[in-house]
Amino acid sequence: MDTRRLLLVVTVAVLVALAGCSGAGGGAGGGADAGGDVPESRSLEGDGGGASNGAEDGGGGTAEATYTVSEDGETVAAVAERRLIRTGDLRVTVDSFEEADAEARSIAEEYGGFVSDSTREIRERGDENYTVGSLTIRVPSEDFDAAVADLEALGTVDRSTTESRDVTDRIADLEARLENRRAERDRLRELYEEANTTEDVLAVQSELSDVQAEIERMETQLASLEERVALSTIRVELREEPPDPSTVSTAWYDTGVVTAFLESVRGLGTVLRAAVVGAAYAAPYLLAAGLPLLGVGFAIRRRLSRSNAEE
Questions:
Q1: Where in the chain are the domains?
Q2: How far is residue 191's CA from residue 183's CA, in Å, rounded to a whole number?
Q3: What pLDDT sits at residue 275?
Q4: Where are the beta strands (DSSP E) in the chain?
Q5: Terminal-to-terminal C-alpha distance of the chain
Q6: Where is the composition biased (Gly residues) (predicted)?
Q7: 119-156 pLDDT, tens digit each
Q8: Rg of the chain's alpha carbons, rounded to an integer?
Q9: What pLDDT is recorded for position 143?
Q10: Helix (H, G, I), strand (E, B) or coil at 237
């Protein structure tokens, strides 16, 4: 019984060591992904619209050719699909926010997508209002370019940016680590079934719980990446043209009583501040001209006083 328990403890220790090695390999793979993101961005600033240009095929992937040499010396091209997360950011000036917003939602539905978030804000300039807002649209990756082009056609494009992030290595790394952890989980389950003592059961159960938690965490990460690859994200900001400030005017008698009083107080403060500043500017000149005049006046007064005393 002691020998069997010893073998069981050694087996669990070996599995833990293998898990540590696999985790280290996974971390290296994650670092390769962090440094291997390949952004492909297109930015458009101006008044014109246009479709996004992308070399990607459907499903959020690109066809990347690699070359190998066969046994007879011929070069053979092998095509590997790259997994890309594609995002877009648009700002479009429209004639009517309501119409553009409805059209943008229709575009999302047309391509089998949906609007995940939206905002709307009504702003004032004088007596006139104008509306600005944004929508976050998710569409299948194969329809990303077409959806961006349709959204740009809603009005005048002020900004258009698209970006692609390569997560192929990250997904491959997660899949490999998941396969290893699942195999490790199966071996631990076998050991759990064979354990005869409470101590052995608890040791294997603790290790099995840790492995299961790591499997679930990696499955969540993989599902999130797969979802972001399958559905691209487009954020579009819609803005109505603000009214021209020169055309906005308000009659003085339409001003509120409180507003008129506050403006009057501000005006009085401005006048007093201007008087103080003007006096500060004039002080040097007054001193320069006033001191000689003051000296002459003092001399004249003294002379008159002396003359009166002599009489």
A1: 2-240, 256-310
A2: 13
A3: 82
A4: 42-45, 61-69, 75-94, 114-125, 128-140, 156-166, 231-240
A5: 144
A6: 46-62
A7: 999 988 877 889 999 999 999 999 999 999 999 999 99
A8: 39
A9: 95
A10: strand
